[in-house]
Specification:
By secondary structure, the chain is mainly β. It has a single domain, classed as Beta Complex (Metal Binding Protein, Guanine Nucleotide Exchange Factor, Chain A), CATH 2.170.150. Helices cover about 10% and strands about 30% of the residues. Strand 1 and strand 2 form a beta hairpin. The radius of gyration is 15 Å and the shape is globular. The termini are close together.
């Protein structure tokens, strides 16, 4: 599968919540922060930033879990508690989808990795760009342009 084979569909582990993506991702990421390690029960979490207008929940009603504060809202299946996507507060133009929710994610590779200052020693992602914390806000425009220019 290539990233150009839209739309994509996916869902939680139990299938009670399904989603659809109909727009090309803006950026793919791996986050090594300890919060993502705890939320994902893994060395890092994976994200695909999708334009809001290209993201839709097609079945079920996800619930907010994880962070409940002003920074972001993490959405989970209310039955199996799978972490499915995140909506960062104040950034209504994209949704961070967990790409492992997709029925086919053969195209996915993290383009950037963040919070490498907290990464576990063995955790490697192969990301093109690495940051000890988050990139500066003004760096995202260039990262998105570089990511979207590549052939996937």
């Amino acid at each position: 599968m290539s990233e150009n084979a839209l739309p994509w569909e996916g869902g939680c582990r139990c299938g009670q919540v399904r989603l659809k993506i109909s727009a090309k991702t803006l950026l793919t990421m791996a986050c090594h922060c300890t919060g993502c390690q705890k939320m994902s029960s893994s060395a890092y979490s994976l994200s695909a930033a999708v334009p809001t207008e290209g993201f839709e929940v097609t079945k079920g009603e996800p619930v907010i879990g994880g962070l409940h504060g002003p920074e972001a809202h993490h959405y989970f299946c209310p039955n199996c508690m799978t972490w499915m996507f995140t909506k960062p507060e104040g950034m209504d133009w994209f949704v961070n989808v967990r790409p492992t929710m997709l029925d086919d994610l053969g195209w996915f590779t993290p383009f950037i990795e963040t919070w490498t200052s907290e990464k576990l020693a063995f955790a490697e992602t192969g990301a093109r760009h690495s940051y000890p914390a988050l990139p500066e806000m003004d760096a995202y425009e260039g990262l998105v342009k570089e990511y979207m220019a590549q052939e996937i």
